[in-house]
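I am writing to request your help with a piece of structural work I have in hand. Here, with my thanks, is the record as I have it:
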Amino acid sequence: MRYSDERLLDSYSQTVSGVFQRSSSAVVNIEVQKGNAPAGGSGFVFTPDGFILTNSHVVHGVKRIMATFIDGRKAEAQLVGDDPHTDLAVVRVGLQNLNYVQLGDSNSIQVGQIAIAIGNPFGFQCTLTAGVISALGRSMRSQSGRLIEQVIQTDAALNPGNSGGPLFNSQGEVIGINTAVILPAQGICFAVPSNTAKSIVPELLTHGHITRGFIGIMGQNVVLPQGIVHVGKLPVESGISVAGIEPNSPADRAGVKVGDIIVGINDQLVSSIDDLHRLLTNHSVGYPYILTIIRQLEKTFLRIIPESRT
């Protein structure tokens, strides 16, 4: 190894070690009781007054939450807010003046940059692994079935006990919340981006849940026959075939029928159920929208007012 390579490796080691030294005391082990079985994961303090960010799947529906800090302190935590659709949750411990870490800007990260994961799995002190950002803009299913967008892929080695722990950049800023490991694969791990957390944490702190628009259909993605695409002058080749409608739902009141194919909402194209989920945010609740549907080979427009659903 050349002298310059040795200096580069030493610089890398110092960067990783420095992040660990500054940040590890903010990472906690989270132990929960699910039914009769103990389970858990990791989390991290993001405010000095004891608010902790973790994964929804770690704390959702549990009987008791205990947080253990690197110095051995334990505290019972209360669930503040939970969003299964992004796999994020906030809990709080009754401790003050805690060391905490900052949420960084996940939009500024690049493939190839250092990624440092710290977790507190299985009651072992803090565990550090390091690697690089392998890919950006991935998507994955949450346990609720919704798609989580802009997921970060990293090769920093993780295990299920790291769920809810932070993924840092070289500056010690949290750029992701570790959420999933593809078990049959090697070196494929995912993190929910910090900017997603930034967007939902205020509502979790205020309301305890995230409100999203709801119209009340059951549907499936379908490929449109070319004849329909041509006659309807449609810019999409797929849509949502309505298989069921909840009684007295916005879709029911708007006149949506089983067999309709939804291809747009307002001026946005809809080619899949995931597209519809993305458009039905909390901002859509209570406001009139225009559904573009195909019914009996004809394009039809229906006025619909989404309702709230957590």
In short: The chain has a mean pLDDT of 88. The longest helix spans residues 3-23. The longest strand covers residues 127-141.
